[in-house]
Design goal:
- The protein is of the alpha/beta class.
- The protein folds into two domains: about 20-140 and about 295-310, Rossmann fold (3-Layer(aba) Sandwich), CATH 3.40.50; about 140-290, Aspartate/ornithine carbamoyltransferase (Rossmann fold, 3-Layer(aba) Sandwich).
- The protein has helices spanning about 5, 20-35, 60-70, 95-100, 115-120, 140-155, 170-185, 210-220, 240-245, 250-255, 275-280, 285-305, 315; strands at about 50-55, 75-80, 105-110, 130-135, 160-165, 185-190, 205-210, 220-225, 260-265.
- Strands 7-6-5-8-9 form a five-stranded parallel β-sheet. Strands 2-1-3-4 form a four-stranded parallel β-sheet.
- Helix 3 (about 60-70) links the parallel strand 1 and strand 2 (about 75-80).
- The two termini are about 15 Å apart.
- It binds phosphoric acid mono(formamide)ester.
- Phosphoric acid mono(formamide)ester (CP) binds near residues 59, 60 and 62.
Length: about 325
């Protein structure tokens, strides 16, 4: 079985991946980390492949990380945003993608405000599709880079206690983390105001903490989510100040933990709201390690979907994907 068969045509989410498929991506990312540490950060692995980055929602980390991953693997890539493209004239997503395919592309990386947009596209075009975040559904490469960062520190995921804190309701990162971590044998909890947890949270099989102090007592790691104010129509929380007072992760709260707790945040952060600056910049924060690992994870996903063989990833650092 080839790597592309074992991963499938597209990466749309972690909900339907197996633990073996997740481990395959994480293990394939390991040898790719080193390329970004070189003076010349480029290998010819995906030379000749053409990739389109379709970003219909704002992004700093994910878009730039995919661009770096593509460039470091020598793929040819172009970026398309909704503003400045014919999407702003009313062209449909599928028409845009089909026109790009007519120019003989190989892969599409898509970020879109609608949940399900990546799957919708994947079912209609032949190119590989990678979900870079679709509405409140999934953000699989973020989930993968979070898991790689946790595995770097703890040397395992099985049995790890990870609490996802904050605006779970609007978070595709939360969903990808919950699915991915549970498949890898971690214990997952969530903590946030009831108004920012999905009604069906019990169906996710996670522990629910109503007090951040209880989550801190329980967890090995906190993945602290941004309050997605742009997705809130109002009424979810009394005020940002009140949210910080009740649910904010502060140094004082962490100092009462029975052990050091690893701190993750997918970014962008609302400093002083869900996370205080001395935690974000503190000794237990791996927030920038997450960003660094994002490039390696995305290189691994691109490599595997292009047909690269996992056992050759080390060799591929100096050669072709196949
Ligand atoms: N974590 C994340 O998706 O960040 P961006 O929105 O900046 O891509």
């Amino acid at each position: 079985m080839t790597a592309s068969e074992s991963l499938g045509k597209d990466l749309l989410g972690l909900e339907h991946l197996s633990s073996d498929q997740i481990r395959l991506i994480l293990d394939t990312a390991e040898p790719f980390k080193e390329i970004s540490e070189r003076a010349i950060k480029k290998v010819p692995t995906l030379r000749g492949s053409t990739i389109v980055n379709l970003f219909f929602e704002a992004s700093t980390r994910t878009r730039i990380s995919f661009e770096f991953a593509e460039k470091r693997l020598s793929a040819d890539s172009v970026n398309v945003a909704s503003t400045g493209s014919s999407v702003s004239k009313g062209e449909t997503l599928v028409d845009t993608a089909r026109n790009l395919e007519a120019m003989r592309i190989d892969m599409v990386v898509i970020r879109h405000g609608a949940s399900g947009a990546a799957q919708f596209l994947a079912e209609r075009i032949e190119s590989n599709v990678i979900n870079a975040g679709d509405g409140t559904h999934e953000h699989p490469t973020q989930g993968l880079l979070d898991m790689l960062t946790l595995r770097d520190r703890f040397k395992r995921l099985a049995g790890l206690r990870v609490c996802i804190c904050g605006d779970v309701l609007h978070s595709r990162v939360a969903r990808s983390n919950i699915w991915g971590l549970q498949k890898m044998g971690a214990e997952v909890a969530v903590c946030g105001p009831r108004s920012l947890l999905p009604n069906a949270i019990a169906e996710f099989g996670v522990t629910v903490f109503e007090r951040i102090e209880d989550a801190i007592q329980w967890a090995d790691a906190l993945n602290i989510l941004r309050l997605q104010l742009e997705r809130m129509q109002g009424g979810y929380i009394p005020s940002l100040r009140e949210y910080n007072r009740v649910f904010g992760v502060s140094r004082e709260r962490l100092e009462r933990a029975p052990k050091d707790i690893l701190i993750l945040h997918p970014g962008p952060m609302n400093r002083g709201v869900e996370i205080d600056s001395d935690v974000a910049d503190g000794p237990h924060s791996v927030i920038l390690n997450q960003v660094t690992n994002g490039v390696a994870v995305r290189m691994a996903v691109l490599y595997l979907l292009a047909g690269g063989r996992p056992e050759l990833a080390e060799a591929a650092k100096g050669g072709g994907a196949r």
